[in-house]
Structure formats: C-alpha cells, structure tokens
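Colleagues,

For the teaching module next term, I've prepared a clean inverse folding example: a structure given as tokens, and then the sequence designed for it. I'd like students to try predicting residues themselves before seeing the answer, so please don't circulate the second half yet.
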C-alpha cells in the first residue's frame, strides 16, 4: 500500500519519472500476487464474516485499482483470480 501512496507524486505526466513508476507498479503487482495466494475462498478476507482485515484491505484495493491505471499501468488486480473475485464481491 505504501507504494501506491509513493506513486501519487508521479501522477503529473510532465514531471513523471517512468523508472520510478515501473519500480512502484512492480512492487504493487508483487504484493497483489502474494495476496492472491493467501486469500481464502470465503466471502471475506479472513473467512465468512467481515473483520478488521477487510477494513484494511478494501481501501488498499480501491487505491490500487484506481491509482495505477492513471499512471498508464494496467489494473494490478487483473490476472489474480482470488483478488478479483474478492474485490467484485466486496463492492
């Protein structure tokens, strides 16, 4: 999540450092990949009921899915089946 906040200073195309963008996007995608491996099959992050984990994860996924495409990067949730399913169900 920290990397998404760091990417916000790269939003202005005139002053964007594409090397920094590639680095941050790669780190976010790696984190989403790790999350994809650990998510269960329940409706929520940690099982069948909403927990504090969901309260942390939902804003993070919202930032990832909204911010990175504005940098010209693909949505980092795409290609991660469990994360995509979780995100679709929690919205």
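(Answer key — instructors only)
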């Amino acid at each position: 999540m920290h990397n998404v906040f760091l990417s916000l200073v790269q939003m202005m195309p005139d002053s964007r450092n594409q090397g920094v963008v590639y680095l941050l996007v790669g780190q976010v995608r790696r984190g989403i990949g790790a999350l994809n491996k650990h998510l269960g099959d329940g409706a929520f992050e940690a099982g069948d009921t909403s927990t504090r984990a969901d309260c942390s994860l939902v804003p993070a996924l919202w930032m990832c899915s909204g911010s990175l495409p504005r940098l010209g990067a693909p949505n980092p949730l795409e290609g991660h089946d469990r994360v995509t399913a979780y995100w679709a169900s929690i919205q």
